[in-house]
Amino acid sequence: MTTTAKGSAIEMCAHPDCKRDNGKPTHTPDGMCQGCQRRVASALERVVLDWVQLHQLPAPNKGDKMRGAKVKDYGHPAEWASDMMTQIATCLRAAHDNLASSVAEQGHKPPGEGYPSERAAVVSAHTYLATRIDKLCRQDWAPDIIAEWHGLHSKVRSQLGLTRPRIALPTPCPDCDMRTLTRYIDVQRDWIECGNCQTQIRSEHYPLWTRMVLEELVTEAHS
Ligand SMILES: [Zn+2]
Ligand SMILES: [Zn+2]
Fold it and tell me: Is 108 helix (H, G, I), strand (E, B) or coil?
């Protein structure tokens, strides 16, 4: 089996949407340029947070007319959310599997099918991929996966964003120390902000928050 990693030749940035060179893809020896690598890193965090946010949606209450609380006022069927979660998990697993096969690090086997739960697969893919963005960006198949992440995220955002749901993060704000951090999502964008001091979490810190959210929120709510 040959690996599909790009060598160190200078080539056009392979990111599906690179406009670094006056609107055109720039050239890089790294598969994707540094700017695009940062975008790939945040695209990963976004789809994982999307998965968490879908996971936190309350199950629909059949016949329950209590629609007062706006957070619970979802206009979409739960099947849609569960289908999106599966698509996100499948896509993350594929990236994890492909990269682990290509990179063939000692002591790390490609995960294959052996996961006890969708959550375990998502946690493991996030942990693996978040620290190997540079390697991911050198793979020939990376642009397709990244395009898929963008597609999934924009689907989630356009659907969920209509109701502007939010999730409270289980960790204190780095600035004011209050437990008032929230991830917001609307049709246009998504962001993490403190409800007390309005600090916005910078995207380079997302991997940390995502990991904490995966560990605390998801296990607490459903195990
Ligand atoms: Zn680029
Ligand atoms: Zn704060």
Answer: coil
The domain locations on the chain are 11-58+75-162+205-221
The token pair that represents 182 in the structure block: 């929230």
- Nearest ligand to the CA atom of 174: 2
Give the ipTM of the model, two decimals please. Answer: 0.82
Q: Counting ligands in written order, which one lies closest to the CA of residue 21? A: 1
CA of 22 relative to ligand 1 center, distance in Å: 11
Long-range residue pairs from 147-151, CB within 8 A, at least 24 positions apart, any chain: 147/16, 148/91, 149/43, 149/44, 149/46, 149/47, 149/91, 150/16, 150/17, 150/43
Per residue in 63-120, pLDDT (tens digit) is 444 444 343 444 446 788 888 999 999 999 999 999 998 887 766 777 766 777 888 8
Measured in angstroms, how far is the CA atom of residue 130 from the centroid of ligand 2? 25
Ligand found nearest the CA of 36: 1
Q: Which ligand lies nearest the alpha carbon of 180? A: 2
